[in-house]
Amino acid sequence: MLKAIIFGAPGAGKGTYATRLQAKLGVDVIAMGDIFREIVKEKSDLAAKVKGYMEKGSLVPDEVVVEVLKSHLAKISGGKGFILDGYPRTLDQAKKLDVITQIDVIMQLNVPDWIIIERLSTRRVCKNCGTIFNVKFLKPKVEGVCDKCGGPLYQRADDNPETIKNRLKVYQEQTAPLIEFYKEKKVPFIELETKTLDQPPEVMVDKLFAELKRLNFA
Ligand code: ADP
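^ thats the input. predicted complex w/ adenosine-5'-diphosphate below
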């Protein structure tokens, strides 16, 4: 049973690779951003609270995030592994996770800022199923339409230049230091570099899968 974190800046490819690994590995993916985007659609106090943070590209407060994580971990059927995408994002979140379970491996995606900015500003997401596309680098077969479910593609409200800048700052300040935290704990790392804009996801997914296999996690 694999317990993994896919780690990297916004736009590093976490969601794109995690969903592709999901089928190959037979694990669940817990994608915090997707979960919060669903929550925001509701009419609730929680939705109103979360919305403001997301729109600015700031982090939702730890106590909210931890409760949401716990409820999703509890839903994973027995014996099934998982990949966490977008959790933890702060030291406090990592420490809270540590009390709940031990992580086997971190898949760390290193991508330069210029690629991230270019990718995020041209990203499109399926409104229906959340599949990620890009109008330049990961085009859908039919413009504006999801290959998987036929749903409409949209641009996320936080994928605009101002908010992207803030998200990268938040990542550097609050999330990147977690690498040190897990290195100190001697959790194994798989590190992947992206150096070009046109890197097909399959190439990266195959590399991640091969490394997981080498470490006996697949
Ligand atoms: P990104 O492309 O920035 O990685 P996500 O879709 O993972 O975006 O997350 C979108 C937003 O959801 C974040 O900017 C933040 O407001 C909120 N969010 C997601 N995960 C967390 C978390 N672990 N802690 C706090 N806020 C989070």
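The first helix runs from residue 14 to 25.
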